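Re: beginner question about structure tokens

> Can someone show what the tokenized structure looks like for a real chain? I only ever see the sequence side.

Sure, here's an example I had lying around. Input first:
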Amino acid sequence: MFIKLIRLTFGLFLFSVGIVMTINAKLGLAPWDVLHQGVSRQTILTMGQAGIIVGFIIILFNFFFKEKVGIGTILNMIFIGLFLDFLMLNHILPEPSGLPGRIALLVGGMVMISIASFLYISAGLGAGPRDGLMVALHNNTGKSIRFVRNLIEISALVIGFFLGGTVGIGTVVMSLGQGYFVQLVFKLFKFNVKTVKHSYIDDNIKALFGKA
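And the corresponding structure tokens:
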């Protein structure tokens, strides 16, 4: 469990690094980040805090749909927001001004997010809140994963846009291309997501009581 938690935490940190890289590219944000930035601009919340609040609301929806929640789900909601604020408020990552540098940063961010996805998913401690919502809606509506994922991300994008989130060519690139980067990284690490057996909070409690 300790090794899994280290793997998960490192993956969430790299995920935050990838997000900040795409933000600093200033070519447009990914759909969920458009929403988080929009909420931040309309409130006193930082972008990371907005992400935590949105994640908490999504977890409540997942409970309503009886979707299982793992330790990784909770840590995903909290740590990405905390790491994001730490990196942005301290200006740790570069902010290139030239277009080539910004494009390189965007692509680098997408690669970083893909590697991070491999790390935290392979830890097997539960899906992220947004992935859990996708699965819950898929199970309850019978619609395809692709349809549900597109519907969720388009909804987040539209709401975020009207709240003042940044939309640009980078938004289109990440919406269409992030999946291919994730697939490539999974192939490089010979990782099959279907083989992951997640442990959820209720499983952990039962295991503890069983040992007791």
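Each token stands for a local structural state, so reading them left to right follows the chain. The mean pLDDT is 89.
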